[in-house]
Each structure stands twice: as C-alpha cells, then as structure tokens.
Design a protein that fits this description.
The structure is a homodimer. Chain A is of the alpha/beta class. Chain A has 2 domains: about 25-140 and about 285-335, Quinone Oxidoreductase, Chain A, domain 1 (Alpha-Beta Complex), CATH 3.90.180.10; about 145-280, Rossmann fold (3-Layer(aba) Sandwich). The first copy, chain A, is built from 11 helices and 16 strands. Chain A has helices spanning about 35-40, 90, 115-120, 135, 140-155, 170-180, 190-200, 210-220, 235-245, 285-295, 315-325, and strands at about 25-30, 55-65, 75-80, 80, 100-105, 110-115, 120-125, 160-165, 185-190, 205, 225-230, 245-255, 265, 275-280, 310, 330-335. In chain A, strands 1, 2, 3, 6, 7, 15 and 16 form a 7-stranded mixed beta sheet that branches. Chain A has a 6-stranded parallel beta sheet with strand order 10-9-8-11-12-14, sandwiched between helices. In chain A, helix 5 (about 140-155) packs across helix 6 and helix 8 packs parallel to helix 9. The radius of gyration of chain A is 20 Å and the shape is globular. The two termini of chain A are about 15 Å apart. The interface of A and B includes residues 97 and 274 of A. Strand 13 of chain A pairs antiparallel with strand 13 of chain B, so a sheet runs across the interface.
Chain lengths: ~325, ~325
C-alpha cells in the first residue's frame, strides 16, 4: 500500500530464514481485514509503501535449526501476531503482548517469514484442497477476534448480548456468542445480506437503525434495560456511543474493533454511574486456536461463511476496493 | 451547603414517615465523605441550600406500617443508597441501580427518613456506646467502597495491586485488598501519616511521587510490568492517567473515586492495545454489608481507623474545612 486507496501488487524478494527460530510458510490462503481498510482510507502517500496483510494459513517450506515442533510440509494456521508462547504474558493467554512477539504485516503474499515458529504456528491436519480452508483461515484472526470479544465480555447462557457491527468481525462475534451458549443475541447492522448471515450464525434479533433510534430499539427489545454484554466490533466512536447506550446496568462492553479514537466518554453519565465494565483489545488468537480448531474440523461451526469473494494476488487491489465499497463482506486471497 | 465553602448548621423540621415502607432513624454517627468535598469546591451559591451527608448508623425511632423486619430501638447500618433489595438489579448485587432506589443526602443531621427501610437497613447487634461504631460506620460507604474497588478488580492472592490515593477510600481499598488475600499492595500517596496507616492496613510499598515519576516508580517495583489490578480511589483525571500508566498487560483498572471528568483516554495507546479492563462505579454497599459485618464485629478488621477527628453537629462546617485542608483524613460526626 502506497497510500490511501493505492494498493499495488509487486515482486519482492522471497522471504528467507533470518533466525534459527524462523520458518518460511508458503501462503495457501490469506485475506483482507477490516482493519486493513483504515490505512486504505487514511494512509499518507509514501514512495516506499508498506506490505500488507496479517491473516494466513499455509504450508511450512523451510525451518530454522532451532525449530522443534514443525516440519516441511506441515499445514499450519498463523495467528495474526507471532509469539513465543512461553513468556509470562503468553502463559496467561495474552499473546498479543508477548515479550518477544509482534504482528504480521506481509501476509497478502506468496510466502511469509514466521518468527518464533514453534510458538506461533498451529498445525492443522488438512490438505491444501480442503473445503475447510476458509473456516481455518478465520482462526488466524476474524473468528477468534469475535470469540475474544465474547470471552472477555463473559458471554454465557444467562447473558443477553448485543453485537454492534455487521462486518465480518461482528458476524463472527455472533457465532462466538452463540457457541458460548447465549440465547438472546441482538445484532445491530443495516446490511440485510450480512444480517441474514448473522441470523444464520445465531442472532435472534436484528436492529438496523443506528444512533439514538438504534439504542431505543435495542432497549425496547430488552424490557428497557439493554443487554448484559455488548460486543463492539466496529471501532468508530459512533459504535462506542451505541455500546454504552444499550448496555445494561452492571454490564460489560467488550471492544475488538480497533478504536479510531483515543478519548471517549467514561464518566458518571456513560460508564461509572451504572457500574459498566469496559474491556477488550487485540485478540490473543494463539491462545484460542487449539480450543476452537476441533469445532471447525468437525464441522460444528462454519465461520468461513464470512468470505463471499475470492481473488488471486493480482486482484488484491480490487479486493480492497470491493470491501471498502461494501460489495464484498470479506475477501479471500488465493495466491 | 449553600455554595462552595459555605456549610451551615440549621434547624429543620424533624423527618417523618411518608410512606408505609419508611423508617425514621436517629443518627448515632455520621461523617463527611471525600465526595462531599466536590460540591464544597464547586457548588454555585444558592439561596435555598442543599442538605448534606449520606453515611450514617443509628437507632430506629419510627417504622411505617409495612415495615416487617425492623423494630423501634434496633441499631442499624444504612448504606449510602437506599434500595428495595428485591428487584432484579438488587438481586444481582447492583443496589445503587435499584429500580426503586436512590441516594441519601440528609445524613449529617440528628435523624433521617429511610425509604424502603426493610430493604435498606441492616441490623447490627451493638449498643450506642460500642467501641465499634467508627468501623461500623465505614460499612455505610467508605470501607465498602474500597471493597467494591477490590472486588470488581478481581483482587485475590495471585494479583498484585496498586491503590491510587491515600484518602479514606484509598486506605479502605488497601485494607480490602489485603483482606482478599493480596500479597503485594503498592499505595500511591504523598501524605506520610496517611500512608503509614496504609502500611498498617496492608500496603507493602508506598510511592509518594505522582505523574510520570510515580508511574516509573511503580513499574520499577514490579519488574517493569505494573500491577494486575489498579484501584483508582481519587476521581481526578490525573489519577486515571496514573492508573493506565501502572496497570499490567491484561490487567484491570477499577474506579471508585467519582470521576470529575466525562471524557478520557481509552483507545489503543491507553487501554485497548494492552487488553486493559476498566470497571467500577458507585459501590452497591448493601450487597456487601452482611458479608463484612462479622469481620468488624469480631475485630478482624478495623476500618474505622480512617476517622481521625470527631465533631458535633455544630462543628460540621469546621469538619469540611479540616478535611479540605487535609488536616483531617476523615471526620466523624457525633450528633
């Protein structure tokens, strides 16, 4: 990406092992993330450009001399953040804050160098032709980001849920909340094709309105009180404002949409007076993959349904355009 | 209170029963709250004035015809909020959001009308001459506000704790954290006589510096990482800024100081990026009294040590002045 709206496909040197703990993974599937659209809107023009992409699954091509758990040919899922999986923070499930870790940023490509490969990559017993690839790819970020929102919010069979946002993360959050037992899931979104998928994933109610009207509608659906948990899957201030508008007394707002603001209301009138909890952050995807993988492999959930378009590498710029124009919900990249 | 700095003692009509669920309680002890100092600083001058005070213990003098659990002569503790103790929110321990509830505001007085007396008042088996009165009075607000901060933060033997503020709430939070098993409690406060009481209550470290220097010192004490929990017991923006400065990755900031701001940083750089949780609010004191009362009655804790001055009703204005000047930590009122 060379600036807002300016995505180019270029030949760059193949990635190589740089540390003995590295692996090189050939990308079998990657995708475009809603968060990639933020620089697509705002990035200043740059002569140098930035590589893009942080979600991928693929096949191990090379391993460094210290890599112990992987072999060439292994099919692997890469979390969007690499991590040693051994430090204090990783052991607590906070992999996005790993002491040695960092974030991938070159995954919309043919191959990726993976630091800390033993800690980062999770093997999956599938072939490159598996029908499960789209769903497996969602374990790299989008589905587990929705899952993180639901886990942090404490979603369970006794909690009512509002999901704000009908993008791929929001729909993933619906699916995650349903999986955790939520029986009442209100999805706030105004794109019918998307909210229809949300209903398929488990939403019991859809509120298309936004702002004050949307808040009023969610409250009306919940006896005036709002829901115990709110999964904020957008990141804009308007979404945050809806979140504290629809959350019930003593409830939890869990954010996973990357905030496009730094300051926001948290005082007596918004959070404090009603004992509202605010939580969330970048999903420590690595902490969740092994737990959720069987549900995907055994077909109990199909989070890959969020992909509604597939492009080759050459068409990645078109993929960005289509997602930005909301013509596509989420774009799968097949190098 | 007739305006900032203007507290007067006046004769007003005695409170009377207004609803069959009311009681009238003769005040045996009341006190001045740190939150009373906010209007003491900022209240516009008013011809009418506002009654003050929300913390009291006393003796039931009259009961309405529907009051079933209380009798004249019962010694009772009043939470700073009245509540029915039966609605959905109360059953969930959210008494400050009781559907019928509200807040006391006339407790610096000889007697108080108590709405919803059955739900609100908790009997204590003591006499008016008990040496436990100061500690029992802290169950009306200050100690249980500190307790609420610690409970909401999830303090336990495995969590390190920073308490921000060496006022009576902060010191109460230290005692509450200690009671919940915390082994490492860093108290941020710069008044040695107060932090000495904090050490007696369980603080293992005291950081007198504020701002960036204070943050650096807490981080140095904790291997660079900060503490799992931060109990913010002040309410000013500067305290909140210290809170997110000293909280550990994945940690919890629990606020009980009434925020003197509405907007504050909560974006990627402050809370989101490190998966920090923000919680807290007005303490649902009523939910905690029965659990903590035995610890006071049996002398296991002595939260009443926060009172370091006692005044009669006539000297309440002087009590405000002394607390505001930090000559007194917390002022007990003995009508």
């Amino acid at each position: 990406m060379y600036g807002a709206g300016d995505v180019r496909v270029e030949n760059v040197p193949d990635p190589t092992l740089q540390a003995p703990t590295d692996a090189v993974v050939r990308v079998v599937r990657a995708c475009v993330c809603g968060s990639d659209l933020h620089p697509f809107h705002t990035m200043p023009a740059s002569a140098q450009g930035s590589p893009m992409g942080h979600e991928f699954i693929g096949v191990v091509e090379e391993i460094g001399s210290d890599v112990a758990t992987l072999q060439r040919g292994d099919f692997v899922i890469a979390p969007f953040a690499y991590s040693d999986n051994t430090c204090e923070f990783c052991r607590e499930g906070l992999h996005t804050s790993c002491r040695q870790g960092g974030f991938f940023s070159t995954a919309q490509a043919e191959a990726v160098r993976v630091p800390l490969a033993d800690g980062t990559l999770v093997k999956a017993p599938v072939g490159e032709d598996s029908a499960l690839l789209p769903s497996l790819l969602t374990l790299s970020d989008v589905f587990l980001t929705g899952h993180h929102a639901a886990v942090r919010a404490g979603v369970n069979p006794r909690t009512t849920v509002t999901v704000i946002g009908d993008g791929a993360v929001g729909l993933s959050a619906v699916l995650a909340a349903k999986r955790l037992g939520a029986e009442r899931i209100v999805l706030m979104g105004r794109h019918k094709d998307r909210t229809d998928l949300g209903r398929e994933f488990g939403a019991t109610d859809v509120v298309a309105e936004r702002g004050e009207k949307g808040i009023a509608n969610v409250r009306e659906l919940t006896g005036g009180d709002g829901t115990h948990t709110v999964l904020e899957c957008v990141g804009y201030m308007s979404a945050y404002e809806m979140a504290y508008g629809v959350v019930r007394v003593g409830g939890v707002i869990s954010r996973v949409g990357v905030p496009q603001y730094e300051e926001a209301p948290i005082g007596f009138g918004s959070l404090f007076g009603r004992n509202i909890t605010l939580t969330g952050g970048p999903a420590p995807v690595r902490a969740y993959i092994e737990e959720l993988l069987p549900d995907v492999l055994e077909g109990r959930i199909e989070p890959g349904k969020v992909f509604d378009r597939t492009v080759g590498l050459d068409a990645v710029p078109e993929g960005y355009r289509a997602m930005d124009a909301r013509e596509a919900l989420k774009v799968l990249v097949q190098p």
